[in-house]
Design brief:
Blueprint (H helix, E strand, L loop, with lengths): L1 H6 L7 H7 L4 H10 L4 H18 L4 H7 L5 H12 L3 H9 L2
Length: about 100
């Protein structure tokens, strides 16, 4: 599932689209994720948060990372990034520079 999300991140794939690409129904996907103790939303947050962090660490500007992940602007991406990771994109960069 993570591979599908990474490949289609800019499109913002829905749960229906991901399930179809995996050859599964949404109900089956939800059941399998529940058995693993997770949810579609949690997997999306983890996957996009990781991808965003890697892109930021590679030096891409916040605006480009936002665009690559399908966000209309840097502001909405920043809000999502903070929800995923607990810090802002700029905070992550500062943290990485000091390590």
């Amino acid at each position: 599932m993570r591979e599908v999300l990474l490949r289609r991140a800019a499109e913002g794939p829905t749960q229906d689209q991901v399930a179809a690409e995996l050859g599964s129904s949404v109900r089956t996907l939800r059941r399998q994720l529940g058995e693993e103790g997770t949810s579609y939303r949690a997997i999306v947050a983890e996957t996009l948060g990781t991808m965003a962090g890697e892109l930021l660490d590679a030096g891409l500007p916040v605006e480009r990372v936002a665009h690559r992940l399908g966000y209309a602007d840097a502001s909405s991406f920043s809000v999502a990034f903070k929800r995923w990771t607990g810090r802002t994109p700029g905070g992550r960069r500062r943290e990485r520079r000091s390590v």
